Amino acid sequence: MTPISLNKIKPWYEGVLSIFYPQLCFACNRNLNHAEEFLCKKCIVHLPRTQFENQIDNPVAQMFWGRVSIAFASSLFYYRKGEVIQEIIHRLKYRRNLHAGLFLGRLAARMVKESNLFPFPDLIVPVPLHKRKMRMRGYNQSELLARGMSEVLGAPYDAEVALRQVYGESQTQKSRYERWENVDEAFICGEISTDIRNILLVDDVVTTGATIEACASALQKASDAKISVVTIGYAAR
Predict the structure, then answer these.
(1) pLDDT-based confidence at 20, cuts 50/70/90?
(2) What's this protein's family per the entry (predicted)?
């Protein structure tokens, strides 16, 4: 008897499973087909894309001018109150929706692949949480983003090369200077191989850039690699 290919069984199995346990779109609650994940194609199309990945002088890149040397920086979506992206990131950070992190990471990776401005990364580094916050939350949302990106790009990620040594207060209500003061010298980095020439630093949302600036500065003390930045959300002020 000819063995049955697992690749042939999988679509059939997933089809049967979806009858009894349908996967629903996070935004509109419609049934997802086997090619869709987390959001249906219609809802993805209506997400508030920034299109910054094709603009070398986009607002996110400009945040770091004169502050820290960044090869390129971009955000995937506008992060605005009451919109789907804000709710997805909120569920990821505060309600343990880990699938959301992997999904958003894969979306961000596709943006990086389609852009001519991002150097292809040798290493993906998530902005780390302090160990106290890690204990409270149980996971680092940026690490989930990095893992999703790694799956699509085929580049490794390292969630331990950068460490947050200073526990800071919530940044939500702070001004740009207060945010910078809150994270100045907050990060340290371990040894990075000299073979690593391009690092992609990943975070969920950028507002003033203070946290990313501090983490990028720590990476630059440990490595001569060029650093690029990608975030899911851009919270314009």
Answers:
(1) very low
(2) Belongs to the ComF/GntX family.
